[in-house]
Amino acid sequence: MTLRPALSLALTAAVALPLSGCISFGAKPPPSLLTLSSATPIAAGTTQRAPGAGTITIAVPTVPQEIASLRVPVRATDTSVAYLKDAQWVEPPNRLFARLLSDAVTARTGRVVIGSRMMGDPGATLNGELRSFGVDAATSSAVVTFDAAIIRTSGGALEKRRFEARVPVAAVLPNAVGVALNQGANQVAAEVADWVGR
Description:
Blueprint: H1 3-20, H2 50-53, E1 55-58, E2 71-77, E3 80-88, H3 93-109, E4 112-114, E5 124-136, E6 141-151, E7 158-168, H4 174-197
Parallel strand pairs: 1-4, 1-5, 2-5
Antiparallel strand pairs: 2-3, 5-6, 6-7
Helix pairs in contact: 3-4
């Protein structure tokens, strides 16, 4: 009685073993993934208190379909987009940019940044759309464009402003593009933070 189930299990394993080399559950990831690093990181142990500093809620920006993925878009012309070979973000770029923006606002304004899931007075609210986050092949530059919208006080007027950074790219290759996009994202984040803090 015990021999038959053991034989059946051995046969199933023998059939499945050759198939395991043929099955793929997605594209092969690149050798390394791209991410953003803040030019104004918040030191561990930094404490902030809300009433004096004021609070602000920063939403993760919306994005067009062109950058709603982990790939890095390269605009060959105004009407055609390709994706950079062997380049992939560690997570969607709008989430990376939102964290960078939070660090910049905290460091440059002293405001307490409230996440969308945190409790407390949301204070001012900053929303926006990350319109560009890729490479313009015609000018060999990394382009970061962010349309920001802020309501500074509850029931206050909406203010909107476009921010853009263009950083030259030495070569349209993953490492060079990653460095240029990081620089552009930090530049835009700093400009947005200064606008928020005025």
